[in-house]
Amino acid sequence: MKKKIAIIGAGIAGLTLANFIQKNSNFEFIVYEKEDRLSLAEGFGIQLAPNSISILNQIEFKKIQTEDYYEPKNLNFYSIENNKICDLNLSQFNTKDAKYTTLRRSVLIKFLKDEIYAQHLRFGKTINRVSEVNNKFLINFNDNTNDLVDYIIVADGIFSNTRSFFEPFKSKPNFKNAIAIRTILQPKTGIDIDENNINLFMASKGHIVIYPINKKNELNLVCTLREKNFNPDNLRLILDRKLLSQNENLKNLFKGNFQSWPLYESQRINISSNKKIFYLGDAFFGFLPTLAQGASQSIEGAYELFNLLKKNNKDVHKYYHRRRSERVKIIKKKSNFNFFAFHFSSSIFKFLRNMILKRLVKNKRFIRNYLGEVYKN
Fold this sequence. Notes:
Blueprint: E1 3-8, H1 12-22, E2 27-33, E3 45-48, H2 50-56, E4 69-70, E5 74-79, E6 84-89, E7 101-104, H3 105-114, E8 121-123, E9 127-133, E10 136-141, E11 146-149, E12 151-154, E13 174-185, E14 198-203, E15 206-212, E16 219-226, H4 235-244, E17 259-265, E18 277-279, H5 294-310, H6 316-341, H7 347-360, H8 364-375
Parallel strand pairs: 1-2, 1-12, 2-8, 5-14, 12-18
Antiparallel strand pairs: 3-7, 4-7, 5-6, 9-10, 10-11, 13-16, 13-17, 14-15, 15-16
Helix pairs in contact: 1-3, 1-5, 2-5, 5-6
């Protein structure tokens, strides 16, 4: 009899896992999503390093239209005054079939969703309670429907509500006293940048990243600012005070519509106390965005868990959490270091950072150690 898996959450992590499971006849599965539908109108960008593209290629990622994604080759570093410091060759990590890629998050979600048969997707489903019955889990939803499953995969984000059904403690993520602002730009931004590649502007207590997300000349902008008191109603004032005061020429970047939210990082690695329950993606650990590995790690984690489940190894729980924990520690350390180094306020520290950065981006051994271990899979 086939074992059954319930995947809670239809984000990148949950849908990636579902795609791989669908190709394995040893399992039945259902993806449960609390929203009534997936929002495919959201158009903000994500970056996928070669480690995740090589995995997505196994579920025919190249089905996505070539005009809907981009493959930047360089990361350009700038001061907030728009003076170029140096550039890093990202293509050195590419392979023939797996290249550093940028695209809209909604494009990836649509691809992942479209590859899953409709009978495996359930929307508008919120868990009411979970009970153990004869070594299985009976999930009761708020609409009074039930499902009896062998495994539960929790992939409902950094603020996961599902974890509370299984863990005696509530692990709240840490607010990092920072906010993120996103918008989509059209070409000819009014500032001198390389619109074919990724551009990072380092400011006092903040930074901006701008990069192409497709071949339609659309650019994604994400701005991170240190701010203890997040109030979306005062966002314009925050931008003026924290960022535009450092370079008023950047004001044209924020003329359109944009969204903002507070930045959080998981307080701890979330390891399930039950050997048949697994946390995946941000529900396992939510990263700061300063290494652009959030989506890639969700994909990696889904692939690792799939392979362990497929082998029906009795130590799946141990191997999965050991491997994921090792990766989290690597990504967290580098993400937090970037969060620190990008935001220097002292002129002396900025000068020293920029001088060191110019040398390091040309040091192949350092780059291989710093990014190579991140982009491997």
